[in-house]
Design a protein that fits this description.
heterodimer; A: alpha/beta; Rossmann fold; 6 helices; 10 strands; about 25% strand; B: alpha+beta; six-stranded mixed barrel; two-stranded antiparallel sheet; 21 strands; about 50% helix; binds adenosine-5'-triphosphate; binds magnesium ion
Chain lengths: ~240, ~525
């Protein structure tokens, strides 16, 4: 797959949540083509299904199966919707990295361990033992680059929101994924901190050739992306205005 | 990998796992203590019983069997047998110094060989000792008194020979040894030793009270009444005799110590008429017309002949001790074989091997009812405690369930990072295993420490709170068994760990099955 080709393709994806007897349709046939190295901003009203879409693309959830329709999400031509749960676990561990609005760090672990946990999961027990040096090296390198070099032994509770989010980003990047899926990574931060987080990400993206799908509410942030899409009524609308 | 990291972190940062550990620890300790004490009780019972009567007992009750010396010789010639000794065991009435009359088990023993089969010599109480007994911290035991050393040595040698010197007649008389609890005049102190009463009181019919000497080995004697046997072994007339008391013994089995009198075998044989006797048999002549004059009446009668033989002395039991390393059951089987040879050699004089089939028994056989009762009781108590401990599973389950719920978001995060369902399940099972291991280690250690010091703890409870759980008058043994069996400790340990693992399974399963997206949205 070349750098300019499609890395992640979403075709006719539907997602309906069921709350008891009530069906809550969220996505009604989403089509999206993410090209390698691209930064896509996903805008949309609250509740429009942005997080849902991100979870589907990251293999955390599966789309609806509708008779007579072909829905697919594929990563580098590999159909991930039809993967077994084991292969899907691997996909999440290697190919994508998640960043969440509320950081989602493990409160008992220090900064260094929070980042390395991704490596442990990906490599398994033996693999981690043999790769420990390189994983820890990469973790401290990432954290150093994000300005946290002197906070490695701190617990998340001892960090500010911006610092926590940087740790979360480092964790998402520890396994060198091809795609970063970020769900309002600055939504919980003040503008200045948010901007510096975005600076950090875009710097890294440029150097690593990372593909990024970022959900946001903020038009100003969306403006920094290569491409902006909107989720309206459960479908994608390209935003040509930007 | 992340599982071990998180296990470690979850362990050190939360109170919940400590509670689960405590639960496991307490249940492990409880079961280990119960099992050890009950099992130790059974073991002590069997061991003390065996040291009282040896490994195998050959019995022909009441009338006893003859030629026992030959049987003993044959037994002792066998390499599987270490020794054998004859005894007569019967019941009698004993009249104590205060004129109380008690039913008593009498053992007529051969003092020279009895000690080689049983631990008789160790059970003799009144003898000089060098070191105080374990509970006797203030050295109040009279047996330690250097001034009494000499007299204690005399008592001891009297016990070994079953004799006592009578200064009045200047004769050495046959004497008996009483169970230390028989007279009720030896007061057992908290230190586990006996304080002899110097005087006892005897009630008089006019309401008065008479003082009588209370310490039996120095001048005390008891009246013993048994039923003598006729030549067919049927009890006929009561025979009474005064038995001077040489010493007292403590076997450790309360029932034995309250109701046993040991006397020389010869004394019993004479009293029961089981000693060697001339046998006169009258046979009428083959020729019915031969007549003779009766020397007593002077009348004529058919001529008869007197055949004079010897009725050998008899004993009711032969106690057998197996050689070192020989299993009791094997020794029992060998005794049966030897008895068969012996019976063949004395055909017509002794019971045949068929009759003896169920009379050659081990101590466990003899006391099967009691031993099985104790075994059943142990099983029952363990079962009850097992159920109580089973609640630990639910306690652990509840604790883990709430911890797993609390950690729902962490599970979502780990899943988003690629953790598999199996990995998440393993996180909790591993966590449960570690908590179980720690709890079981401490529980086993606690149980071990408590059992090892159970007598000291019991004494302390008694002194501080007046609490006596193990009363020697209700239990057979004076001390609580305090040994921990390694195999029991291992079993209890494993069960303790399994309890925790079992308790963690359901929360592990729930965590693993949780939808990661829902877990992430969890507040
Ligand atoms: N497990 C669920 N069961 C039922 N409905 C759900 C579930 N998860 C999400 N929804 C619904 O699906 C819709 C889309 O949710 P989603 O979180 O994807 O929206 P969003 O666009 O990310 O919103 P926001 O901008 O507020 O984060 C919402 O209406 C939400 O209530
Ligand atoms: Mg959202």
């Amino acid at each position: 797959m070349s750098e300019t080709g499609t890395i992640l393709n979403v075709t006719n994806v539907r997602k309906t949540y069921t709350l008891g007897r009530v069906k809550v349709p969220v996505l009604h046939g989403v089509d999206l083509d993410v090209r390698a190295g691209e930064w896509i901003a996903v805008l949309g009203a609250s509740g429009s299904g942005k997080s849902t879409l991100l979870h589907l693309m990251g293999g955390l959830d599966r789309p609806d199966r509708v008779k007579g329709e072909r829905a697919s999400i594929s990563f580098m031509d590999r159909e991930i919707t039809s993967l077994g749960s084991h292969a899907l676990d691997k996909y999440r561990a290697r190919d994508v990295g998640f960043v969440f609005q509320f950081y989602h760090l493990l409160p008992e672990l220090d900064v260094m361990s929070n980042v390395c946990v991704g490596g442990m999961i990906r490599h398994g027990r033996l693999g981690y033992r043999t790769n420990r040096k390189s994983i820890q090296g990469r973790a401290s390198e990432l954290l150093g680059r994000f300005g946290l070099g002197d906070r490695l032994g701190h617990r998340p509770a001892e960090l500010s929101g911006g610092e926590r989010q940087r740790v979360a980003i480092a964790r998402a990047l520890i396994n060198e994924p091809r795609v970063l899926l970020a769900d309002e990574p600055t939504g919980n931060l003040d503008q200045k901190t948010g901007d510096s987080i975005l600076d950090t990400i875009s710097e890294h993206r440029a150097s690593a050739g990372l593909t990024m799908v970022m959900v946001t509410h903020d038009e100003r942030i969306a403006a920094r992306a290569d491409r902006v899409i909107r989720l309206v009524d459960g479908r994608v609308q390209e935003d040509p205005g930007l | 990998m992340y599982q071990s990291l998180l296990t470690r972190k979850y362990l050190t940062s939360k109170l919940m796992p400590i509670l689960a550990m405590l639960a496991v620890m307490l249940s492990v300790a409880t079961i280990l203590i119960t099992w050890s004490v009950m099992g130790g009780f059974l073991k002590t019972l069997v061991n003390s019983g065996r040291s009282l009567v040896g490994d195998v007992v050959i019995t022909w009750p009441n009338v006893g069997f003859a030629h026992y010396e030959d049987l003993i010789e044959r037994l002792e010639a066998d390499p599987m047998i270490e020794g054998a000794t004859p005894i007569i065991e019967t019941f009698g009435l004993v009249q104590l110094p205060d004129d109380r009359i008690e039913l008593i088990t009498i053992k007529g023993i051969d003092p020279s060989s009895y000690g080689t089969v049983t631990n008789y010599n160790d059970t003799i109480w009144w003898k000089p000792i060098e070191e105080p007994t374990p509970k006797d911290r203030d050295r109040s035991d009279v047996r330690l008194d250097p001034e009494l050393r000499e007299i204690m040595s005399v008592f001891e040698s009297n016990a070994n020979t079953l004799t006592r010197f009578d200064p009045a007649s200047g004769e050495t008389q046959d004497a008996g040894v009483l169970g230390v609890e028989v007279t009720g005049l030896n007061i057992r102190t908290e230190d586990g030793i006996y304080d002899p009463r110097t005087t006892a009181f005897r009630a008089l019919p006019d309401g008065g009270i008479e003082r009588v000497p209370g310490f039996m080995p120095s001048g005390g004697s008891v009246g013993l009444t048994v039923l003598a046997l006729d030549s067919k072994g049927r009890p006929v007339d009561p025979v009474t005799r005064t038995i001077p008391i040489a010493n007292e013994f403590q076997s450790g089995i309360y029932e034995v110590d309250t109701s046993t009198l040991i006397v020389p075998l010869g004394v019993m044989q004479r009293m029961l008429r089981m000693d060697e006797a001339r046998r006169v048999e009258i046979v009428e002549s083959e020729n019915p017309f031969e007549m003779e004059r009766d020397p007593d009446t002077g009348e004529m009668r058919p001529k008869r002949r007197e055949i004079v033989g010897v009725d050998p002395a008899r004993a009711t039991n032969v106690l057998v001790k197996a050689a070192k390393g020989v299993q009791v059951d094997d020794a029992q089987a060998r005794c049966k074989e030897i008895y068969a040879e012996f019976a063949a050699a004395h055909r017509g004089d002794v019971p045949g091997p068929m009759q003896m089939e169920n009379q050659i028994r081990t101590w466990e056989d003899l006391n099967a009812t009691m031993i099985n009762a104790v075994k059943k009781e142990t099983g029952l108590v363990l079962f009850v405690f097992g159920i109580v401990s089973f609640t630990t599973v639910f306690l652990v389950l509840a604790i883990f369930w709430s911890m797993a719920s609390e950690k729902t978001k962490d599970i979502g995060i780990l899943r988003a990072l690629g953790a598999s369902t199996g990995g998440i399940a393993w996180l909790w099972i591993r966590y449960g295993t570690v908590i179980g291991l720690i709890g079981a280690v401490f529980g086993t250690a606690l149980g071990y420490v408590i059992v090892s010091n159970i007598n000291a703890i019991h004494d302390w409870l008694g002194r501080t709170f007046g609490l006596t759980i193990w009363d020697p008058r209700q239990y057979y043994f004076i001390e609580i068994p305090s040994e921990v069996d390694l195999s029991k400790a291992i079993i209890v340990f494993i069960v303790g760990v399994l309890t925790c693992v079992l308790g963690s399974l359901l929360p592990a399963w729930r965590s693993a099955k949780m939808d990661p997206v829902k877990a992430l949205r969890f507040e």
